[in-house]
Amino acid sequence: MSRPRGQLAPLFRRLPHGPSGMGREEVARNQRARIYGGMIEAVSQRGYHDTTVADVIALAGVSRRAFYEQFPNKEGCFLATHDIVVARARKQVIDAWQGERGWSNRLHASCRALLEQIAEAPKGPRLVLVDTLGIGAAARERMQLAGFTFERLITVFSQGAPDGVEVPPLAARAIVGGVRQLAFVHLLAGRESELALLADEVLDWIEAYRSSAAARLGSVSPIGPMRTPPTPARFLCGEGTRARALGAVVHLTLDGGYAELTDPHIAQFADISTEAFHRQFASKEACFLAVLDEFAAEALECVQEAIADCASWPEAVRWAIAAFVDYLLAQQALMRLAFIDVFEVGPAMITRMTKPIEALTSALSAGAPPPRRGPAVAPVAVTGAVWAILGSYVTGQRLARLPGLVDHLTFVVLAPYLGPRAAVEAIRAARVPPARAR
């Protein structure tokens, strides 16, 4: 994510010295707007961690004094810029909605406006969806608040549907998570221009969750208590140098946070030399990311074992998600690392953010039929939808409620592929465990 350094040309002309005909508040608003633009451009060129206040003020055409009169530091400026980008996107969506007549036309216009804005002016959305990751807890909270903002919009928009079908809160979270993941993947790959052409596909995918059939999930009983008690992950149980280093990173991160870790500290806790640690891992970051890789691989093993005797793809999906949730609950410490502490790692975490969920959805896609709703976006969007739901329960400290989500998460996966009504029927039919699990 780092960009080469060099002199940055100002984006805006400085305000003239002396009386400019502008009041103090107007000058301050003008400076804030320029600084927001400077932050967006600086981060676009250099990434957050390599951006300095000097870069921002050079691009904004303001003085250092003016910057610190508006913001406490670089992070405060970045977070405020994040908020203004989200607020503008929300306004664009609402304006598009209000500019049309008819519920379907309004929904299409809103979705198109959001995707076209990302495609045509990607630097601000990239700051929000990509560069925010890996900055820390404050940025993670901003990401959650942005998600809640658009979940509320979806809920409000759905209330005006002519068929009277509203989107339940969990489905709204799935939709926001799916669209966010779709945009994230395109921005990360530099393919944001393609988003402008996907409004119809996205709306078709959303329709899979806007169904009265989803209400019937409340009558489907959860699978019952999880079968696996809390136990250490297998990859942490070895006596070798690598396993001890991985275990040390897990323990120390949970105890004092990732930011406080150092390579010698990890080595000391693992009872190995720093040289021995570096023979296994280049840095604490590499060791932490290896924990996530092992976590995803071990979860996938549990999933594959659980679905080995399933007779159909829908049955495999339900029991894969049941096994996945079972494993997550048995590894609650690793869940915290994967869904919360990972935001402290820095830019390297960006491609790892959804790794455990991607492992699950990739395993399931092999036996899936072609999606009926939003086929061009469904595989990526489903990954984001599942991650968003699970992440909200982890960060909200509602882990005890995860078993009751198995059928709902299964619906999130099945509905775009089978259609909502067929998905609910498949979930009912899959309630009986496969032969090996009986």
Descriptive account of the structure:
With 438 residues, this protein is an all-alpha fold. It has a domain at 1-71. The chain has 19 helices and no strands. α1 packs across α2 (53-60), α4 (74-98) runs parallel beside α7 and α17 packs antiparallel against α18.
List keywords for this structure.
single chain; 438 residues; mainly alpha; 19 helices; 62% helix; 0% strand; flat
Please tell me the overall pLDDT.
88
The shape, in one word, is flat
**Based on helices, strands and strand pairing, what is the structural class?**
mainly alpha
Computed over alpha carbons, the radius of gyration is 24 Å
The total of beta strands comes to 0
H and E order: HHHHHHHHHHHHHHHHHHH
Q: Which strand-content bin applies to the residues?
A: under 5%
Oligomer: single chain
**Spans with pLDDT under 50 lasting ≥5 residues?**
219-223
Helix content: 55-70%
Total helical elements: 19
Distance between the termini: 49 Å
Biggest sheet features: none
Give me a quick take on this structure.
The protein has 438 residues and is mainly α.
Task: Give the secondary structure arrangement, pairings included.
Layout: H1 24-46, H2 53-60, H3 64-70, H4 74-98, H5 103-120, H6 123-131, H7 137-158, H8 169-188, H9 199-207, H10 241-256, H11 263-269, H12 274-280, H13 284-306, H14 313-330, H15 332-339, H16 355-365, H17 378-395, H18 406-418, H19 420-429
Helix pairs in contact: 1-2, 1-4, 1-6, 4-5, 4-6, 4-7, 5-9, 6-8, 7-8, 8-17, 10-13, 11-12, 13-14, 13-16, 14-18, 16-17, 17-18, 18-19
